[in-house]
Write a structure and sequence with these properties.
Layout: H1 4-27, H2 30-40, H3 43-52, H4 54-86, E1 89-90, E2 93-94, E3 105-110, E4 151-157, H5 164-173, E5 180-183, E6 211-217, H6 226-236, E7 237-248, H7 255-264, H8 268-271, H9 281-287, E8 293-297, E9 310-316
Helix pairs in contact: 2-3, 2-4
């Protein structure tokens, strides 16, 4: 029999090292990114991007890396995200029966990217146990009951035009062309009311108080001006509207894990597309405005040595 202490120690060491392996994986995509830029741009333009435009190079680098790493992250997160959207989470735990309403109506997806999460908005997820939705993010058998309602509109916010082609294909594959609209601007331009001039950068407009649900999955870590933009999104929610959140956040437990996360964060944003590990996202959401109900917590199966902890749950306006 193995020594339990030795096993726990080995698991903790692997957990602490794992983020560095993720950074190493990202670094291996630098050569292919340079090659991609020179294949798709003129020689002089490519040279300018590689040598003198770190922001554009980082975007291209992250796109190359995330096309490989993203699907694995999605598959690992689906066991929490699908129940979240079904209304089956409480206190950071996934449960078997709904504890509140699921998503439905008019929805904003933040950080649509290349469409990794588009499929979760398909109304085929309305089906519950015993109706043929076998194995969708659950361990074995059919999914549990769902409190979802029909989704009538999804605004997929993605200001980076390099993602739009892949995002459109993901929307088409999910059968959502008549429901899903790609919004090619940042959060600050979703509503004309958020602009002092009233001028818009896209043809549409999302009125304050008109949105039923907001969904943010592993994206608030990289949005600019998080306090301001989270507040802009809050204003778009109708009274009673819900914000479904699965995000990684700042470590709150043990001084040494907080210190370790801050050290890791010196390198993390540079290798992972501007993603910030130490953002107090839960606190920012709580303080952005009055909420009628907050049911959010850290998943109970995340151990103490997890230096990329998450929050899971729903904020109800």
């Amino acid at each position: 029999m193995s020594d339990p202490l030795l096993t726990r120690t080995s698991e903790a060491l692997l957990g602490l090292v794992d983020p560095w392996l993720f950074l190493k994986l990202s670094a291996t995509f630098i050569p292919s990114t340079i090659s991609h830029i020179f294949r798709t741009e003129s020689f002089l333009s490519a040279l300018r991007i590689v040598l003198f435009s770190p922001s554009r190079f980082r975007e291209a680098w992250f796109g190359q890396f995330w096309s490989v790493a993203g699907p694995g992250v999605r598959d690992g997160a689906k066991v929490r995200v699908l129940p979240l959207l079904d209304g089956r989470t409480t206190g950071g735990r996934v449960v078997d029966v709904p504890t509140g309403p699921g998503i439905g109506g008019v929805v904003i997806e933040i950080g649509a990217g290349s469409g990794l999460w588009v499929d979760i908005f398909s109304n085929r997820h309305l089906r519950g146990a015993g109706e043929g939705a076998a194995g969708e993010g659950e361990e074995g058998g059919n999914r549990a009951a769902s409190a979802r309602q029909e989704i009538t509109r999804v605004y997929g916010v993605e200001p980076n035009p390099e993602h739009h082609h892949a995002l459109w294909h993901a929307v088409d594959d999910a059968g959502l062309l008549d429901v899903y609209e790609i919004v090619p601007v940042g959060i600050e331009d979703l509503s004309s009311s958020s602009s002092s001039s009233g001028r818009k950068k896209w043809d549409g407009n999302i009125e304050p108080g008109s949105v039923d649900c907001i969904v943010s999955v592993l994206c608030l870590c990289s949005i600019p001006d998080p306090q301001e933009n989270i507040h802009e999104l809050y204003k778009l929610l109708r009274p009673g509207g819900r914000w479904y959140v699965y995000e990684h956040v700042k470590v709150r437990y043990s001084w040494y894990m907080r210190l370790y996360q801050r050290f890791l964060n010196i390198f993390w944003p540079r290798f992972i597309g501007g993603c910030e590990l130490c953002r107090p996202t839960e606190q920012t959401l709580r303080e952005t405005g009055p909420w009628a109900k907050i049911d959010v917590g850290q998943p109970v199966d995340e151990p103490w040595y997890h230096c990329v902890p998450h929050i899971l749950g729903v904020f109800t306006k």
